[in-house]
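Format notes (please read before filing issues)

Several people have asked whether sequences and C-alpha cells are stored in separate files. They are not. Every record keeps both together, in the order shown below: the sequence lines, then the C-alpha cell lines. Line labels are part of the format and must not be stripped during preprocessing.
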Amino acid sequence: MGLAWQQGPLAPHSIGRFLTPEPLPERLLFAERLRRRMRVRFSGECIAESEDVILLHEPGRYPVAYFPLGAVEHGVLEAGQLTTRHRELGTTTWYTVHGKDRKTPRAAWRHTELPAYAGEFEDRVAFAWRAMDAFYEEDERILGHAADAYHRIDIRDSSRHLEVRDGDRVVANTRRPVVLYESGFAPRWYVPRADIDEDALTPVEGQTFCPYKGLADYYEIGGTEGAAWSYRHAYDEVRRVDDLVSFEPDKIAVHLDGTRLELEPGQTVIPHGADRGLDVAEVEKP
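Then the structure lines:
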C-alpha cells in the first residue's frame, strides 16, 4: 500500500482509519530502509551509490530517498546560504550539486538540526529527483519519483457498462472496461480503443512519467485538456492497460452502470525539491 500519498493510510485524505482509542497526530512521518541498491547520475556520472538508503514517507508527498553522506562522491555537494525549516525535522540546508560539466543550485538538501526521534537521517542527503539525470534501482532506471515499496497495482476485467459523454456526444461506450486498482488512488477505468470515438480525442503536448506504469500521453476532448490519457507503451507489469484509454471524471462525464463518477479528494501529490521537465527522448535513455 502506498503509505503517505494520495489516499494511503498516512495521507491527509486517507480513506481508512487507524483503530486506536486516542486520535493520532495530524501528521505521521514514516522512515524505512529501502533494502535496494540505488544510484544517482548527474552530469553523465554516478555521484551517489548505496545499499543503505532510507525512504521518508511524508503525508501528501512522494517518498524521498536519503543517501549516507559517505556514499556521495567527493566534491559533489556545496552547501549554500539557503536554509529552510521542516516542520518536524528542523533546519534544512540546501546544496548546489556539482558535476563534470555543470552545477545545479538547490539540487540536494540535508536536515542539519534533527530532533532525537529522527536520528536515522543524521548525515544523510536527498537529491531533488528530476534535477538529476537519473536514478536507478540496481541497473533499472526509475522514473517520476522514488518507488514506494508498499505500492500495489491490480488489474481486473469487467463487464460493467461504462459510458463517457461530452455533452450529447458519446465518446466511449463499452461493456468490457478494464479497471486498474492502484494503492492510494480511486479505481481507474480503461476502455479499449475499438469502443471509443477516437475522432473526439485530440492529442496534446506533454506527458507524465509513472514509475509503475510508464509514459502517459494525454488528450483534449471538446476543448478540455487532460480529459483522457493512455499508456501507449505500458510497462510489462501493467501490460493489460497498454494503449487503452482512461477518462478523468472531473473533466468529462463518466458514467458507470448509470451512475456518474466523481473525482475523489486527495488525488494530488506535492513533489519534493527543485524540479524540471523531462522529454520523451531523455526518458528512453538507459
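For reference, the curators noted about this record: The two ends are 28 Å apart (CA to CA). The CA atoms of residues 39 and 49 lie 4 Å apart.
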